[in-house]
Write a structure and sequence with these properties.
The chain is built from three helices and six strands; from the N terminus they run ββββββααα. It has helices at residues 79-82, 89-105, 111-137, and strands at residues 2-4, 18-21, 33-40, 45-49, 56-60, 65-73. The strands form two sheets. A four-stranded antiparallel β-sheet has the order 1-2-3-6, with no helix packed on it. It has a two-stranded antiparallel sheet with strand order 4-5. It is an alpha+beta fold. Helix content is 33%, strand content 23%.
Length: 145
């Protein structure tokens, strides 16, 4: 297991999210399974969301603990060969873009978010161009170049 730290701002003393890479690289050289965890202090109320009805339950912890906040599984292998078995980077970028757009339309828009939004949109555009080129070559959804 490997831990990512790219999301941590140097000098920030706050408790950070922990990102763990849970698998070995696949055929294309990328990892497919990530866990994002958060730490909670003794006595802190931890919201647990029930996925069936989105009810939020608070649990008092007797000691400090770490809980998994999200598990992100990316597509592993070509869809035509393996079916849909995970999300795409494009889907994850779309979520980030939506959040940045919402922040910019909220009460605290800023230049930093505007620039981040522009670069995320550009990253998504380049990934979509790659997919279009693969469609034109007839190799999208396969392990062919």
């Amino acid at each position: 297991m490997r831990t990512l730290t790219d999301h941590i701002v140097s000098g920030d003393q706050a408790v950070q999210l922990e990102i763990a890479v849970l698998d070995e690289p696949g055929q294309g050289g990328a990892h497919h399974d990530y866990r994002i965890s958060g730490s909670y202090a003794k006595g802190q109320k931890v919201p647990i969301q029930h996925h069936m009805d989105d009810a939020v339950i608070h649990i008092d912890l007797s000691g400090a603990t770490t809980i998994t906040l999200a598990r992100i599984k990316f597509q592993n292998g070509p869809i035509k060969e393996n079916g849909v078995n995970g999300i795409t980077l494009e889907a994850l970028l779309a979520i980030g873009i939506d959040r940045l757009r919402s922040f910019q339309n909220g009460p605290f828009p800023c230049q930093e978010n505007a620039i981040a939004l522009m670069h995320c949109e550009e990253a998504l555009e380049w990934l979509q161009k790659r997919t279009l080129a693969r469609i034109k070559r007839g190799v999208e959804g396969t392990n062919q170049k």
